[in-house]
Amino acid sequence: xxxxxxxxxxxxxxxxxxxxxxxxLMRFEKKxxxxxYVNEIFRxxxxxxxxSATMGFDDLAQLTHKMENVLDxxxxxxxxxxxEVLDALFQSVDALEIMVQSISEGGDGQLDVKLLVxxxxxxxxxxxxxxxxxxxxxxDEFVRTLLSQTADQGFNTFEITVQLERTCLLKAARAxxxxxxxxxxxxxxxxxxxxxxxxxxKFESSFIVILVTTESQEKLKASIMEVSEVESVKLxxxxxxxxxxxxxxxxxxxxxxIQEVTVSAPFKPPVEEKRQASNNKTIRVNxxxxxxxxxxxxxxxIDRGRLExxxxxxxxxxxxETVERMSRISGDLxxxxxxxxxxxxxxxxxxxxxxxxxxxxxxxxxxxxxxVGADTELDRTVIxxxxxxxxxxxxxxxxxxxxxxxVRLKNGKNEKGTIRLKAYHSGNHVFIDLEDDGAGINRExxxxxxxxxxxxxxxxxxxxTDKQVYELxxxxxxSTAEQISDVSGRGVGxxxxxxxxxxLGGSVTIDSNEGYSSRFSIQLPxxxxxxxxxLVQMSEERYALPLSSIIETAIVQPKEVxxxxxxxxxxxxxxxxxxxxxxxxxxxPNSVQGDHYSVVIVKKxxxxxxxxxxxxxxxxxxxxxxxxxxxxxxxxxxxxxxxxDGQVALIIDYNALIK
Length: 659
Description:
By secondary structure, the chain is α+β, with helices and mostly antiparallel strands. 42% of the residues lie in helices and 23% in strands. The strands form five sheets. It has a six-stranded mixed beta sheet with strand order 14-18-19-17-16-15. A five-stranded mixed beta sheet has the order 6-8-9-11-10. The chain is elongated, with a radius of gyration of 35 Å. The two termini are 60 Å apart.
């Protein structure tokens, strides 16, 4: 069988199971008396083991198998879930994630896990495993009567103890093969554990079967030993009184049952080899297919714009009606396609609790991470890019924000710090806030570091507001860490955060209350591929201004324009804001100044500016197209779009423009 066709499903499902193990481990660490979490972890680990063994990823299957042994010992109260046990399980999950990531990148998924396997084995070895003894089977009256009748008919009844090798990975599969051998030799009356428990691998490495047969002990033992990974087989004859020795006559029901002695519960293949039908009405779709669908729809949007323009020019009522209906339907289709691409931010957030746990342990701090709004959805393209910036911000909060426990106690705080990660929708944007109850930002320390590194001069430092000072920590190479560590201090991180977020058409702001808290607020667009924009005219050229950052449009008379240090400015609702003449900036040919200024007021973060254009064309949904490798690094241009008449309009990038 070609397993490659199942590889993609294996990778996706493995990641889901590992995430579930991660989540449940975090919950169990906080409440070790709740074994429901352990059962959840065991189920995911068990399924992952079976999938891995089936796909031939032996290192992955072996490590998961050893995890199972530890989890089984915990849920059977054979070992306590102390710190060493939990740390070993967390380390195992880390190793499993590395292996799955290797497989997803085309690797073989191999990893040296010998030391980790030995650690898990030592944990289990601390407590002897409870195996079923040969005298552990009890027979009820019905079974005793049944066996008595079979003895009268010349059948032998054996109690067969099968011991599998300790290294056996697919115990249920091996047990199934043993049962298959036994069913060919006779009838299985009873098993310990039950058939259902054996199917679910709820046993250590041995099980007992009661078999009624005409075969000899030697032949039975030889047949069972031919099954791979069977370590030993013990057979014992079951002493049964014959019917003439029984005190009670056999009932009609028992006699009828004897004539049709069969397996009481037919053994089924293990769960991982036989999937149950699901009522879940969802299917997995490769993201590449969604990207292709989106690209096709983008072309449809371009043609829709063309039809709308032709309809206006021809002024035909029937055409107008048809185009209007097509626009409405395509708008609904657009909503559906965009929703299909939406992914909960949970897919990014769910790896952070583990990260914060490990970082806080490394730094000797006590930190609780609270996550709110994990079901908030963002476009897949945004989700793929937002992970690293959030990692930098979280590491910054853990290292710089939250104080050491003794310092917090001295300052009258709880020794355990709290980091709160919150996501929520607002209009056409998603906001992600990261707030901690730590030391806040020391204004003077930040200023001094900025002066020492030459980021600002002394004269500028005197004029900065608190928020402007906080913004300095986004400067390239800036760091307030006294010592370089694995967590921070190298001056790399927050500048990347700002650049990445702004490249996504978003913004990040900082607020702080020194001694008490800090808050980073990230604003992101819901999607990047189709946006609403204001089309403007400049001479014979057209440009698109993303609507998300436009406050309003205005007509400004020349007498209202002032000059400050050579810069045009206007008084906008009591605030002095700069004017940027886009025609001069982009060197638009044949540019002529009219008798007034058409101004678009835009705002990015805390900064506001007025952009001078020739005229406003109107609002339109546009498809954002990359400039590709032919025009890299064009200043203040984030891409281009194709308009209805086939003309290309450049899309202005506010982030580069407003500094």
